[in-house]
Amino acid sequence: MLYPSRVSRQLEANVERFRTFAETERAAFHTFDGPLALLDSFDQAALIERLAVDDRPGALPSEEWQEATGLIVPFDTQFEHHRAARSWALDQIAGITTVAVDGSEIKPTKDYSLPIAAVQVGWFENPHRADVPYVKDATFEVVDPAELTAEAGDGFGIAEQRLALRRFQLEVEVLIARMTSLAEHGWPAQHPPVAFFDGSLIVSFTAVMLERLGDEYIQAICDLLRVSEDSGVPVVGYVDTSLAKDLATLLAVLGGLPRPQRMPDSRLLDNRMQWGDRTRALVCARADVLDRYLAHETSYAREICFTYLKTNQTAPPSRLDLPRWVIRAGLLDHVLDVVRSEVIVGNGYPYCLETADACAVLSALDRERFYRILQDFAVRHQLALRIVPKAASKRRRRV
Description:
Strand content: 15-25%
């Protein structure tokens, strides 16, 4: 139970700390004004030369900087009301297929004598054509108990890590399958489908994992990048609330400032962008796991670009990770108009990702149904599946 009066007293007691923190953040924010102005004056060659003093400058200019300069690319179309925005979005996305995936999982539990777990991945494929129906579907996979206990150490801790990995792999596998299928049918020139991946294409979290597990995440992303280019289907790694500091690191190198600790790019850009604006594409040159992005004798260490897109007037811009081939092929504006359209229809978040999440999500009730099915299965096949008394009591009371 929460005691509101005690919460209020604690907040009041710490008001000066909050004020000091906010003022420090504001001062740190303004230290980037000079480097941002400097950034806008450089073309690709000059910027690369200026950043050469650091082999991990956070970001590098993509091919888009060859013909134009300036970090912010304004969105010139203005809408009088949301109805006009929806009309624009539906016109832009007509006939262009979007596909998105998302996943959910049932974690292994000590309540049962067997390490039973499962993952479910849902997908939504929308051709945006009146004569072709959309597809909402899901795949469900029970994870092999032997796979969950494949690593030494804390059994359930490692089991949960391996389950999260399997969910990630299955999301990538489903998206690859859909992209490959779309490529078989073709599309009008310069209007390819767009695939949405819920999360960053740069799996920095693997830097603190067991190396074998981390390498499997990286392999999955490298496979996704390879299939995206081979199929010609751009993939967007969509991050709604990004804490990445790649642009801030570039600006620190450019301005001779300390590397930022608490200044995410999205906060740095927020007040400088209006709805629909984006940043010019940058190549991620982060100092973490990118050197391990190797697959089939191909390095993807400098093959992921990012841009920030203002998708909500009252929130910081979203980060979009994209394969570099999309910029080289001149498809960036096409992809961004598709993303803007999906965000308009989804009222601030891509509708296709929202729908994929609805397909994939497993509620508390779904989990209880899973365990009942599991118990019936164990009885039918005479499996020695035991449940601890405390868990059994909870389930009796909650069903």
